[in-house]
Amino acid sequence: MTKADDGARLYRAPLRTRLPLHWLGILPFVLFILLFLILPTMKIVIGAFQRPDGAFTLDNIANLFTPSILNAYWISIKISVASSLLGCLIGFGVATAVILGGLPKWIRGPLMTFSGVASNFAGVPLAFAFLATLGPVGLVTMFLKTEFGINLRLLGFNLLSFWGLTITYLFFQIPLMILIITPAIDGLKREWREAASILGATTGQYWRMVALPILTPSILGTFALLFANAFGAVATAIALTGSSLSIAPILLFAQIRGDVLGDPHLGYALAFGMIVITGIANAVYIVLRARSERWLK
């Protein structure tokens, strides 16, 4: 080694480790996810397999298969399926009419704005709105009874029931469907319709053989997302029906609210079961959404 090399080694600047500043921008988001999603989820998963003294047990999971809990899960699944199916059908029809139906273009802006707000409108305000509208002495209920002699109660409609909760869920299910399916409908290329028309296809044939097969992954994926959205809705169900309808979120609330008869660890198990079901639904949505995006590209 020469003297020049020794001098270069002696005067070489020390290496400095620099923290990329652009990562600081997502630091609040990472902290938020960690504190309010990951850590609570881990607490639920761990608590589902613990006794009050902290010992490991499978009794909480086994208790999920009792008839009352299975019935609560089954009612929640049926409500989620019904509201998701109706939300997909109505939302798809509205989005298609606005984008491809020849309606004035100015309608799209207010519709998307309302959908963005309504898709997040839930809980006590939504329950109160429907009680004031379709409740036993609601505005629409009394109007139909006094003006047309139609008694919704005698016809079998009860807002505090399966179909009452399903209709209430539609208030945020339909706007969510509109928000998600609109980009997919926008992705339908005009060339595809023109090619189908040149080959002699009717409008019905185009939708049946070209448009719907392309949109099917998006529709099914959105259905899975709407299912998860309805299955995990807690505040609206509790505020609207209270304990009159036994569904999984209400049963979960009863177990963890701290009453003498409550069992927090059984509540953890109920929440764990809901996480598994909604996780499967979200996984289906992600897979189908990725498949749909490959087609639309």
Automatic annotation (TrEMBL):
Stretches of the chain forming a coiled coil according to its record: none
Residues annotated as transmembrane: 21-42, 54-74, 81-103, 123-144, 156-185, 205-227, 234-254, 266-288
Origin: domain of life: Bacteria
Domain ABC transmembrane type-1, chain residue ranges per copy: 73-287
Entries under PROSITE patterns matching the protein: ABC_TM1 (PS50928)
Stated family: Belongs to the binding-protein-dependent transport system permease family. CysTW subfamily.
Protein known as: Spermidine/putrescine transport system permease protein
